[in-house]
Write a structure and sequence with these properties.
This protein is α+β, with helices and mostly antiparallel strands. Helices cover 28% and strands 25% of the residues. The protein has one domain: Creatine Amidinohydrolase (Alpha-Beta Complex). It binds magnesium ion.
Length: 247
């Protein structure tokens, strides 16, 4: 059962979404060679506090960070720490925030320094493109897996693979609500989309194979072949015209 949010609820999610956006922008700015992911995490924590909001991730099933910071072959759920960023790295930053009882969630992958390879930049661009291809389908009357298929088609057209083990999700009063939104699927199937559904769409796209492994820290997902992975996410409200991006 996918919840339909009232206009009031959507605007509360959007309020959380504005904070997510601001935090992603500020943290991206200081993601430069020599900085550690732990420093980015502390900056995010300070900013979120300043907005009188709360990290949706910190303490979630014991996750220790305010943000997720996933470098290069790390797919998602990287734990911020003492690792210094190097020029040529790519970094996926995932931010989730709760404000006044409502959640929003978004992610970007950024280049670190000016030595990022063309191959890595292409992967980042295609992952962002896959996200927007999916978002475009978040319109009343379409089916849920139209979104999934659009993401997959875009990624595979660019010869990348989509991660199977993690999916997007409904969002609102909880960070993870129904439905699950895979980044692959059969068009024309799945639940009928209705105005007021709020969805966190989040393709994780790999340069090589789609298989992943979890490191011994119990959180960090990495590509099995250790090739690069990128991640983009927006919280989106379905409408009967154009999808409304809340982050
Ligand atoms: Mg999410």
């Amino acid at each position: 059962m996918i919840e339909i949010k009232s206009e009031k609820e959507v605007s509360l999610i959007q309020e959380a979404g504005r904070i997510v956006k601001a935090v992603l922008e500020e943290v991206s700015k200081i993601a430069v060679p020599g900085r550690t992911t732990g420093e980015l995490d502390r900056k995010a924590e300070e900013l979120i506090k300043g907005f009188s909001a709360r990290s949706a991730f910190k303490g979630y099933k014991g996750f220790p960070g305010t943000i997720c910071a996933s470098i290069n072959e790390q797919v998602v759920h990287g734990i911020p720490g003492n690792t210094a960023l190097k020029s040529g790295d790519i970094l996926s930053i995932d931010v989730g925030v709760e404000k006044n009882g409502f959640y929003a969630d978004a992610a970007v992958t950024v280049e670190i320094g000016n030595a990022v390879s063309k191959a890595a930049r292409d992967l980042i661009a295609a992952t962002q493109g896959a996200l927007y291809a999916g978002i475009k389908k978040a319109v009343q009357g379409n089916r849920l897996f139209d979104i999934s298929y659009a993401v997959q088609e875009y990624a595979e057209k660019h010869s990348y693979s989509v991660v199977r083990d993690f999916v997007g999700h409904g969002i609102g009063r909880k960070m993870h609500e129904e439905p699950e939104i895979p980044n692959f699927g059969k068009p024309g199937t799945g639940s009928r989309l209705k105005s007021g559904m709020v969805l966190a769409i989040e393709p994780m796209i790999n340069q090589g194979g789609f298989e992943i492994e979890i490191l011994s820290d119990g959180w960090t997902a990495v590509t099995r072949d250790r090739k690069l992975s990128a991640h983009f996410e927006h919280t989106v409200c379905v409408t009967d015209t154009a999808p409304r991006i809340l982050t």
